[in-house]
Structure formats: structure tokens, C-alpha cells
């Protein structure tokens, strides 16, 4: 009976009964749930928008490149930028820099970018872990706690400083 069940065609879940010739490509899914505490998601949105609108998905650094950068660090080690770039499995990391290869300080510029990008990813991953731990311990914010008023005070001071910025320029 099992062999018979395997030979029978399975019902098609599509309402029109037709099969699509194109197999759906699985959508790339990689996320760091940093709760908006870093600018990572804003960067990802802007980069992905630019990559899709220009049609240069591999030539503009975005979320997929960050994934492969982290995978390279896991395999080769922290700050081993040259080893990661030379590994054929992580060739996608080199794509966004192909247009800059003619510049004199190309390798230094590329390594500095990778270091800055990893620092941002590392920061987001640390925050993600802190949020996960807080959720696990059922920790919540007490809105009446004095520390919660710090953000409001900071915003007020920042606004005041910006509005009086012209005074310092005029005094010089």
C-alpha cells in the first residue's frame, strides 16, 4: 500500500490546477532582532532598496553580504579579513568592491569597511542576546522609574543644543 501511495499523483494545492513551470526560489531570510537599538535595519532597508532598484543585488552591500561575513568570521576567526576574502566559498563578499579595485588603498579600505560592518553586526547581536535574556526572565520596563525619564531629558537637551548652535558659530 505504501508503494502504491507513493505512485499516485499528489493533489495540486493551486486553485487553477496548473503547475508553474518556474519553481519558486526560496526567499533569503536572515535577521538580527536588535529591537531598533542600532541602525542596522535602517541600513538594510536602504541597501536592499538600492540593490533591487538598480538590479545590482551582488554589487551593493546588503543583508546577504552581512550573513556571509558572519559565516566567514565563524569559519576563519575574528578579524581574519584576508582569509575570508580569499576563501572561494565567501566570494559574494568581494562582489561589492569590484568597482573599487583600481584604487591604491583598495585593500585597506575594504578591510576597514569589513571591520566597521562587523562591529555594527556584533553590537546588534549583543543587543539581540540581551533582549532574549530579558524576555526569558520576564523583565519589563517600569515607566515610572527615573531612568525612563532620561531619554526624554536627553531629547530636550539635544533639541536645545541644536537650536542654539548658531550662537556658538556667531561668537567665533
TrEMBL record:
It holds the Pfam family CHDCT2. Gene3D superfamilies: Homeodomain-like. Signal peptide: none annotated. Residues 1-25 are annotated as: Disordered. It comes from the Eukaryota. Residues 58-171 form the CHD C-terminal domain. This is CHD3 protein.
Amino acid at each position: 500500500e505504501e508503494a502504491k501511495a507513493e505512485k499516485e499523483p499528489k493533489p495540486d494545492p493551486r486553485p487553477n490546477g496548473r503547475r508553474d513551470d518556474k519553481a519558486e526560489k526560496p526567499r533569503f531570510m536572515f535577521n538580527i532582532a536588535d529591537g531598533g537599538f542600532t541602525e542596522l535595519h535602517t541600513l538594510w532597508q536602504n541597501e536592499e532598496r538600492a540593490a533591487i532598484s538598480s538590479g545590482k543585488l551582488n554589487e551593493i552591500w546588503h543583508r546577504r553580504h552581512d550573513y556571509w561575513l558572519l559565516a566567514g568570521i565563524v569559519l576563519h576567526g575574528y578579524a581574519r579579513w584576508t582569509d575570508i576574502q580569499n576563501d572561494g566559498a565567501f566570494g559574494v563578499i568581494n562582489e561589492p568592491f569590484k568597482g573599487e579595485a583600481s584604487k591604491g588603498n583598495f585593500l585597506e579600505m575594504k578591510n576597514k569597511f569589513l571591520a566597521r560592518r562587523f562591529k555594527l553586526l556584533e553590537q546588534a547581536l549583543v543587543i539581540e542576546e540581551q533582549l532574549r535574556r530579558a524576555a526569558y526572565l520576564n523583565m519589563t520596563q517600569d515607566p515610572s522609574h527615573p531612568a525612563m525619564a532620561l531619554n526624554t531629558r536627553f531629547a530636550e537637551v539635544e533639541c536645545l543644543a541644536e537650536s542654539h548652535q548658531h550662537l556658538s558659530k556667531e561668537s567665533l
